[in-house]
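Structure Section — protein described below
Tokens — whole-number codes for backbone shape
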Amino acid sequence: MAKKAEGGRIEPTIRDVTARGVRTRVLEAGLESAPALVLIHDFFTSHRAWDEIVDELALRFHIVAPDLPGFGESEKPNPARYAYSVEAYTEAVVDLIAALGLGRVSVLGHGLGGAIGLTLAAGHSELVQRLILEDALCYPAAMSFRNRLPLVPILGGIFFKQLYGRALFRSWFRDEVFGPGTPLPIERVDAYYDAFNSPSARESALAVMRAALDTRPVVARLSRVTTPTLVIWGRDDRLYPVAAAARLARELPHAKLEIMDAGHAPHEDKAREFIALLTEFLEGKR
């Protein structure tokens, strides 16, 4: 159980929850009686992706931030046992919500986590009160050579599993994720790499990359999302161009759009501005 502090607060607690048969590491913090906010991270990261914003959000919300299976400190089952698809991750989040007794929640999904949030809201509208999509994986996007290389048959897998080292990992975050002028948080990125740098983790990550190539199932679900939604996007996102933001907000039935002067991770590039937008939306002021 999460530790309770005075005033009904939940002290930041790391624990394991079984979700769809997989041991899942979860950060829980905030106000016990406050609305629950589930934070779903992007590819290559973990619950630590929220380090810049989680403390302040915990002053207003009951925060639950899992490491998705295959990432961070969660179990990394063989792809023969776990699908590593958006649908599989979505059902794991459903299990997590039930296991923690959260009831209805708001969901913030970043990148891959955005695709999971969309799928959750489309298929389990009874669970999702409000949805925030940050630079979400949704539409097909052109990929750089570096991002295509691991997907090349045979040779790409060998490169990704054996030759993708710490320097390349750091440069991917510096060049693809963070916006211009944002210092690279070396300690956090190295923690991501350490969690990634095992045969099982690399195999899991490659399975996710392959499964995420086909975004058609995510797009097909957009019209079924009736949850009030805030789409937040970085103007300088190099992974998913900002043009996708307007399209997503237009195709979702109840969506608002905010474009920030940031890269792929506005919550890290402009944490205070991001928190303000998020809080206003969740508290019904936007």
Q: What stands out?
A: The longest helix spans residues 86-99. Strands lie at 9-19, 22-31, 36-40, 62-66, 105-110, 128-134, 229-234, 255-260. The mean pLDDT is 93.
